[in-house]
């Protein structure tokens, strides 16, 4: 892996979807970290997250959409007012989020959380 910023940016912009999903990892809260023995996990629709940095700091809500193309997450309640009066989601980078409650309905995610390592 290269240290050159140019190549790091190229990797980020040209990454395929299965790699982009890994980049969308969000840190777990202290309680979840102790319970599952993991530090972070890729975020998915239905998880409850808390915003750690930015304009919506300390805001908590469910994940409404995960945008792999732009590396952004849309959180319920984190909206801005457009000039015409309509609300629009304020997209948040996954590094600025913390998962507070996991959506464990998915069998694949249960398998991931059960793994060691």
Give the arrangement of secondary structure elements:
Elements: H1 5-13, H2 17-23, E1 25-28, H3 30-36, E2 40-42, E3 48-51, E4 60-67, E5 72-75, E6 79-81, E7 87-89, E8 97-101, H4 107-114
Parallel strand pairs: 1-8
Antiparallel strand pairs: 1-2, 3-4, 3-8, 4-5, 6-7
Q: Could you give a short description of this structure?
A:
Helices cover 26% and strands 29% of the residues. It has helices spanning 5-13, 17-23, 30-36, 107-114; strands spanning 25-28, 40-42, 48-51, 60-67, 72-75, 79-81, 87-89, 97-101.
Key features of this structure:
117 residues; alpha+beta; SH3 type barrels; 26% helix
Protein model, in words:
The protein has one domain (5-114): SH3 type barrels, CATH 2.30.30.30. It is of the alpha+beta class. It starts with a helix and ends with a helix. It is 26% helix and 29% strand. It is built from 4 helices and 8 strands, in the order ααβαβββββββα. The mean pLDDT is 94.
SS content category: alpha+beta
Secondary-structure arrangement, i.e. CATH architecture = Roll
Low-confidence parts, pLDDT < 50 over ≥5 residues?
none
Q: Into which percent range does the helicity of residues fall?
A: 25-40%
Q: Note the main sheet.
A: 6 strands, mixed
- Helix/strand order: HHEHEEEEEEEH
- Enter the CATH topology name: SH3 type barrels
Alpha plus pi helix count:
4
